[in-house]
Amino acid sequence: MDKRIIYKNTDGSIVIIVPANCGLTVEQIAQKDVPTGLSYKIVNASDISSDRTFRNAWTIDDAELTDGVGA
Amino acid sequence: MSYIGSQPADSYLALSKQDFTTSATTTYTLSNSVTSASDIALFINFVRQEPTTAYSASGTTLTLTEATSASDDMYCIYLGRTVGTINPPNGSVDSSKINYPLTTFSSTGIDDNATANALTIDSSSNLQFNSGYGSVATAYGCRAWINFDGTGTISIRSSGNISSISDKGTGTYTINFDTAMPDNQYAFLFSGRSNSSTALRDIQPDANDTISSSSIDVRVETQAGTEVDISIITMAVFR
User: Fold this and answer.
1) Closest residue in chain A to residue B155, using alpha carbons only
2) Residues B154/B212, Cβ–Cβ less than 8 Å
3) Is A24 an 8 Å CB contact of chain B?
4) How much is the pLDDT for B131?
5) pLDDT tens, residue by residue, B74-110
6) Would you place residue B125 in the very low, low, confident or very high pLDDT band (cuts 50, 70, 90)?
7) Would you call B28 an interface residue with chain A, using a CB distance cutoff of 8 Å?
8) Distance in Å, alpha carbon of A53 to nearest chain B alpha carbon
9) For the segment B177-224, what is each residue's pLDDT rounded down to a tens digit?
């Protein structure tokens, strides 16, 4: 699946969800695997940097997380 | 051969003949149940008898209006009740002809092409098989597994019963089950391969990580205790 789901943890860290080919849609996976109440954004995998040197420093503007909220 | 109307299922049916040992009686027992006298053609001394006039028949009882003698020859041909004598041809019975579930299924299992039972499902729905174990015993299945790349653009190579992995930072992930486990008391096995000369200390959840029925955390640590990305991370869950 060439999509990724981004959400921000309660501690401010960024989590990137990699969907599996399990028969669920990326939206269904987002609803299921994003923690309840946290907003998320669905992006193309190519939008995520492959340079993970400073992975723990990644951040995202809350205003970008507009695609839904974890169920 | 062509037919007008429905093709008769004659490959499954055959007429049946019954010979009687006659005596001075009017009552005989049919070997097949019938509903009326017209369901059989009755012959006494090779003369066909008229249904309902010369005889009556119901169920397995044949009643003559006049008693036979021991010297009479009597037989009948079943007309209204044909008797299946031929097995259905190979491949002729499809699943729609079977009444599922097979509530009367009582087999002890599938044999091993000899005489021993090799595979079965017990009354508690446990799948049991031998397969080199030495006897038929309950097998405990791998309920989820995954092989993923934790470097670069994180990606799942292959998986079973996994909905996603959550990349939480360098060397730290949550693996989310598609169908949840019944509880968090499952056995989990992690392994992997480093993509560098950095020696790994462990690939496992640490004391603060979550092990739940719906997901399990894992972190990859170097011998110095720092998280690190590696190229192959695998996991299997048994329950």
Assistant:
1) A18
2) no
3) yes
4) 87
5) 999 998 765 555 667 778 888 888 777 666 655 567 7
6) confident
7) no
8) 8
9) 999 999 999 999 999 998 777 788 899 998 889 999 999 999 999 999
Pair of tokens at residue B103? 């509530």
A31, closest residue in chain B (CA to CA): B163
Query: Is the minimum CB–CB distance between B22 and chain A shorter than 8 Å?
Result: no
pTM value is 0.67
- CA–CA separation, A68 and B121 (whole Å): 44
| Cβ density class B84-101: b for 16+ within 10 Å, e for less | eeeeeeeeeeeeeeeeee
CB contact under 8 A, A9 and B146: no
How many CB atoms are located within 10 Å of the residue B238 CB? 13
Taking the Cβ of residue B163 and every Cβ of chain A, the question of whether any pair is shorter than 8 Å is answered with yes
Q: Is A57 on the interface with B (CB under 8 A)?
A: no
Q: Does the beta carbon of B195 lie under 8 angstroms from any beta carbon of chain A?
A: no
Which of B155, B164, B212 is the mutation pick for testing A, counting most A CBs within 10 A? B164
- Beta-carbon contacts of A38 under 8 Å, excluding residues fewer than 6 positions away, are A7, A8, A9, A10, A69, A70
